[in-house]
Amino acid sequence: MRKILLALVIVGLVVGVGFAQDKVTIRLAGYSGDTPLMQDVLARFVEDKIPGVEVVWEPITEDFLAFVLRTLSAGTAPDIFYVDLYWAETVASTGLVEPLDQYLADSAILSKEDLIPVLVDAYTVDGKLYAISKDFNSLVIFYNKDMFDAMGVAYPSGDDTLATFLDKIVRVYNSREWYGACLNADAARFLPFAFAAGMPFLKEDGSAPFDLAPAKYAADWYTTFNRLGIGATSADIGAGWPGAAFINEQAAICIEGGWLIPPIRNENPTLNFGTAFLPIVWEGGPRGNYLFTCGYAMPTNPPSGRSDLVFKVIELLTSPEVQTYILEAGHAIPSRVALLDSPYFQQEDPFAQATKTVFEATGLAGTLPFTFGEIAGGAYMGAVNEALTLIMQEEATVEEAMNDAAVKLDLE
Amino acid sequence: MRKRGDLVSAFIFLLPLLFTLAVAFLYAFVRTVYFSFTDYNLFQITKFVGFDNYIKLLADYRFVLALTHSLVYAVVVTASQTFLALMLAIVLNQKIRGLTFFRASYYVPCIASSVAITTIFIWLMNRRGTVNWFLTAIGRYWPFIITGLALIVLVQCLQVFWERRQGLPARVLDPALFGISLLIGVVGAVILGRLGVVQPYPMAEAAIPWLTTRQTFLGIPYPLLSIMMLNIWTTTPTFMILFLAGLQDVPQELYEVAEMDGATPWQKLLHVTVPALRPVLFLVITLGLIGTIQMFDQVAIMAGTAPLESTITLSYYVYWNMFGAGTLPKVGMASGAALVLAALTLFVVFIQRRLGFSEKGWYS
Fold it and tell me: Domain for residue B343, yes or no?
């Protein structure tokens, strides 16, 4: 009797293993901060939707670019991985990321025309599309309405110039209670103002542009808040990032993207806040902004061995249902053209309105994709960050710091 | 026959370790040497570049800076932590009340996570963090501190003088008398402050940018100095344990003989303790030099906070060439820098052995 039972158990195990081996496992790797959302999305919209496919979420805590390059080189890259626009060209140049043009052409569900053109262009390198944007974002001014009301100052608006905006922040600053602005020495926040002021990405001879007058003009304005003491960095305030300082009501404004909306909803849902476009450089002048986006890509040899199934998962993850769900969670703007008229943007609550402002900001003239082409983005931004830090701490003048930054980048 | 059999047995037992060393070290080392002569970017090698990578290293101001930082860091931190560890071990080798508690407390920095400690440390060293708050307090209230200390010294002297006049044996630092002096000194300083005799010094709030600056002190950037202080604090306890173990082997008879010869505590330390601890000193200094030359984690954690030029070390320079700039890795440059780091480590340990402490004990 015992032998029969044992035999049955063994047969059952073998059959079970056999069934298990019929399932194809698709590994999806992304930022660890997205874990709750992605696990929710996978459970609601992906699980059991493709027969014989199991999608496993792999949160990555290390530097994501390092992870992608390392695993692509070793041949152990996941089936689907995030690609940030910032380093998309670097990853595409490895030759180990699968172009998706043919998959889109053959797909009955997803085509290039379904996606917002600027996002398609953003991930197109040498005529080939290497990733499908899953969402996008841009920068807006988040402001605390209560603080502006208390100091009798008009709210920031899209009509503000750099000068009028500075004036509002000077007047909303309350030396006992809050800072006017929380601004870090962050090139990703500063460069839109520099480009709007007329700084080119590079000079015509390919050298660094930071010693040009527009760059210095923008640097002078951007660092004025902290130099006057009406603004402070997040570290000085004791917050991890400017968004945290804003949520904790330690600063009247900060410059962030739609990614600030879920933390506000989670940590301080009664915060009375509004959003506005970044100020224009001068009356009737240009406005700058950055377009941030993250997409899904797959390696040329996915570990599952089934590129077709991998793309089906990407189709599901970028479906209207998933993108609408993510939009309403306040996470990011969908990349599908059809969702740009979503009724969510018409809702009156501050979170929906903030998302609408972020969305509208992405379409304004002067909004540039957050990419650096062949230039090492880290070196470009690093030179700017150090210059801004020196100016904010009054260890160097604007002239000295920006000239130094130009020399430093030219050495790279 | 038996010897050959022993040899074969020994080799078989060593085989797993040798295999691991061959793969994880020898193979990796040979590949690193090979890559340092190419333009490999983790995905393809397009050409053999000879010594170009090494020439570029010497011409790269960041490499020179990283090399300088690594050497200064190694010398200062190794010397400081060795000295402090030895002093702590000598103090904790006494029979004092609460010895176990003190030994455990001093060891806590070693067992805490390096990442967690560095993160807290970044928070403490903010421009409006606890360290600057403490310095501001010292800067503003130093008149009170000086007044309190003066009162303590005065009262202690008076008490000792009075006791000795009564014919009672009173040591200068008698604990009971010191307790009374301390109480009177603190209360006296507070009273004088209330009366307006002593006032705070009008000083602006200290806002030293410990981590976000390129300022230097004696040529060492503030951020690197901050990392030095942190590492001395976290690594000293480990070496303290080694010294403590070594102190248990020092024969007590040597101290007794020294005392009979009239040796002072300082002479006993220099002529009995230190020679007896020579093997441990060799180990501590060697481990210290190797660990400090290869320091990486604190610099990596501070990468977004501190300017790169103020903290970069050789290890981080290797990492930065691989993944730092947002472009494809410069494996050739990183490999060259890694080999320079390895050679430097060997050289420093060699110099230390030739000119400093050897591993031979005092009885040799």
Answer: yes
pLDDT at B143 > cutoff 80: yes
pLDDT single digits (tens) B67-83: 999 999 999 999 999 99
* Tens digit of each residue's pLDDT (9 = 90 or more) over B293-328: 999 988 888 776 777 888 899 999 999 898 876 788
Q: From chain B, pick out residues whose CB is under 8 angstroms from the CB of A376.
A: 325-327
In a domain, residue A301? The reply is: yes
Q: Is residue A296 part of a domain?
A: yes
Q: Is A63's Cβ below 8 Å from some Cβ in B? A: yes
Closest approach of A242 to chain B, Cα-based (Å) = 14
What is the pLDDT, as a whole number, of residue B328? 87
Query: Of the candidates A63, A69, A379, which has its C-beta nearest B42's C-beta?
Result: A69
Q: Which of A227, A233, A391 to mutate to test the interface with B (most CBs of B within 10 A)?
A: A233
Instruction: List, in order, residues 6 or more apart from B163 with CB less than 8 Å away.
Output: B169, B170, B174, B177
The verdict on A240 and A264 lying in the same domain is yes
Residue numbers of the domain that contains B93: 53-126+216-355
> Considering its fold, how many domains does chain B have in total?
3
B200-235: b or e for each residue (b if 16 or more CB lie within 10 Å)?
A: eeeeeebebbbbbbbeeeeebbbbbbbbbbbbbbbb
For residue A381, give the chain B residue with the closest CA.
B325
- Do the interacting molecules here have an ipTM over 0.95? no
User: Which residues span the domain enclosing A115?
Assistant: 25-137+292-346
CA distances from B148 to B172, B198, B202 (A): 18, 10, 19
CA distance A289 to A364: 8
Nearest to B308 by CA among A134, A385, A39, A138: A385
For residue A135, give the 3-state DSSP assignment: strand
The answer to whether residue A79 is domain-embedded is yes
User: Which of the residues in chain A have pLDDT under 70?
Assistant: 11-21, 330-331
Residue B203 lies in a domain: no
Shared domain check, B60 and B182: no
Per-residue pLDDT tens for A232-243?
Answer: 999 888 888 999
Query: Rounded to 5, what percent of chain B is helix, strand, coil?
Result: 70, 0, 25
* Model pLDDT for residues B172-221, shown as the tens digit of each residue: 888 889 999 999 999 999 999 999 999 999 988 888 888 888 888 898 99
pLDDT per residue as tens digits for the range B233-250 = 999 999 999 999 999 888
With contacts defined as CB-CB under 8 Å, which chain B residues touch A382? 308, 325
Do A150 and A254 reside in the same domain of the chain? yes
Mean pLDDT of B22-43: 92
Residue B151 lies in a domain: yes
Q: How many domains does chain A have?
A: 2
Q: What is the pTM of this model?
A: 0.81
**Is A363 domain-assigned?**
no
